Amino acid sequence: GWRSPIADHELAHLPADRTPPREDDPKAVRRVGVIGGGTAGYLTALALRAKMPWLEVTLVESSKIPVIGVGEATTPPLMAFLHHYIGIDPHDFLERVQPTWKLGILFDWGPFKDGIMGPFDWGSNSIGVLGSMATRNDPNAYTLQSLFMMANKVPVFQVDDKIVSMMSDIPFAYHLENMRLVNYLSQFVTERGIKHIDAEIEDVTLSGEDWVESLRLKGGGELNFDLYIDCTGFRSVLLGKALQTPYISFADSLYTDTAITAYVDQSEAIEPYTRATTMDAGWCWKIPVPDEDHIGYVHSAAHIDPDSAMDEIKRLYPSAREFKTVRFRTGRHEKIWRGNVIAMGNSYAFVEPLESSSLLMLAFSIMSLIPLLPNSWAEPTAREVFNKLTAERWDGMRWFLAIHYKYNQRRDTEFWRQVRDNADVSGIQPLLDVYAGGAPLHLRDPLTRRFVRATAPTFYELDGVDCMLLGQGYPAKLVTTNEPLEAWQRRKDAADALVARSMTQRQALEAFHKHPELTESLVYGRHSWVTGYGEQRWLQQ
Ligand code: FAD
């Protein structure tokens, strides 16, 4: 069902078997400084130790500069990244980080009453989008997972006295409380042989325009490494500030720049999805963690003042409390790798969280980087390949997010009018034109699909574009099918019967806590999608 969200042409970088540098090489890359201790810093340091254990990795972070503390909705590949790539034990993780499950994103968005289902099996079309359009006049009954989402259930069943789980058949993702995740990851630092220094970088000494010689610490002292990974978040201390790498803003396409976060009482069910609700000047996420729901109103500060934004939140979620404001900027640096500095996480790029893409981008960047890292600065490097690959991925995400805004007709406020009139979607326009002539794109002929993909990068593939355009009622001719509607109805009835017997997320999580063998076969089972991702079959598709 799930297709790789990376376009085919980006798949050339499978991890090679890495070997240590030569002992006598004076330009060997051995000592790596990972600067920053947010999700980006910890995941990068752990991945480097897991895949290149000869590296001396030092993580430098300042306890005086807090981590961003948001970032809780993820995507399926992150499960394989955590449990297979960096080797985090899934049982321990389940107990201590207490993730909840996400089958996709439910968008309160567009013209249809039920909004838009964005399930992770959106590429499978397992029930059939054309049948859904014909019978319900919306695309939402198109996959098995979308039916589970609409019913607020998960694919786990009680059959006689046994628990039967289909979670290893249909990709899903974790919702993770950010602080719990960062604290959990930090425990592995010494355990996995990473040196940890609590210090603030005050200044960076360069030699030449893009080579870092050393870092000067506040209060005295100096550090130097062969390679610097900048994980300093929006401060971008090395790539941005010290190297003055040009920044390409996405603000013409994506107008939001602020989030107000809060906690709310949990809805009766632990909803098995991230909810994204259209608001007056943006949208609001709702993410269930075990005892409460976390929300965040992502908006444009130019279009609503803080008090009105909080009032709007309270109208939607009266129990909202502990408000916090997070400012962000949307865009990327021109390059992710310059000289001996590579940026990971927000220090290179950021787009707002409407498609939960940051941690996914981070995992992809780490996994693409490790096979490309040089053993020695005397060798030619893959800098420009990595720069181009990463820039294309982020640009694809920019255009994909832009169509979520430009064509959302749900509210008529100043913000939405301006977005609809002016948001720049030029990078994806060629694809929109082909879509208008025959939708959905994933049911078009293979050659057309390939041409469209090559012309307009979208990151989440054509399936994602189809989902958002169909769900927003973007004007298009539907492709035709010879399949009789009764065949669609039979699939739908069978799926409905399955969904009717399934559990709520709360019941299923309890079952997983009680029966560790369910987690074992989910993460390591031979036929599980997580194992497939772990072996990186998804990168090779
Ligand atoms: P940070 O967490 O900011 O960490 C920066 C680190 O650098 C800190 O440890 C700090 O101490 C250190 N540092 C900074 N300057 C210095 C210095 N001078 N000296 C020493 N140390 C320094 N992602 C998702 O995948 N899903 C989501 O749902 C999601 N939601 C989000 C919502 C919002 C509103 C925002 C803004 C982001 C969201 N993200 C989401 C993104 C996600 O939070 C981040 O991408 C992720 O946490 C990575 O952050 P980071 O490690 O790059 O930076």
Molecular structure report:
By secondary structure, the protein is α+β, with helices and mostly antiparallel strands. The protein has a domain at 26-72 and 177-252 and 330-381: FAD/NAD(P)-binding domain, CATH 3.50.50. Helix content is 36%, strand content 20%. It contains 20 helices and 24 strands. A seven-stranded mixed β-sheet has the order 5-4-16-17-18-15-19. A hairpin with a 4-residue loop joins strand 11 (212-217) and strand 12 (222-223). Helix 10 (358-369) runs antiparallel to helix 11. Mean pLDDT is 93; it is low at 1-16. The structure holds flavin-adenine dinucleotide. Flavin-adenine dinucleotide binds at residues 36-41, 60-62, 65, 67-68, 70-74, 200-201, 231-233, 235, 237, 259, 296, 326, 328, 345-347, 353, 356, 358-359.
Summary of the model, kept short:
The chain is α+β, with helices and mostly antiparallel strands and about 550 residues long.
Quaternary organisation:
single chain
Largest sheet strand order: 5-4-16-17-18-15-19
Largest sheet: 7 strands, mixed
CATH level 1 name of the domain at 26-72 and 177-252 and 330-381 = Alpha Beta
Rounded to the nearest angstrom, the radius of gyration is 23 Å
Say what the CATH topology of the domain at 26-72 and 177-252 and 330-381 is: FAD/NAD(P)-binding domain
Q: Number of helix segments?
A: 20
Low-confidence stretches: 1-16
* Overall strand count: 24
Computed structural class: alpha+beta
Bound molecules: flavin-adenine dinucleotide
Shape: globular
Strand content: 15-25%
Label the CATH architecture of the domain at 26-72 and 177-252 and 330-381: 3-Layer(bba) Sandwich
What is the CATH homologous superfamily assignment of the domain at 26-72 and 177-252 and 330-381? FAD/NAD(P)-binding domain
Helix content: 25-40%
CA distance, first residue to last residue = 12 Å
Give the rounded overall mean pLDDT.
Answer: 93
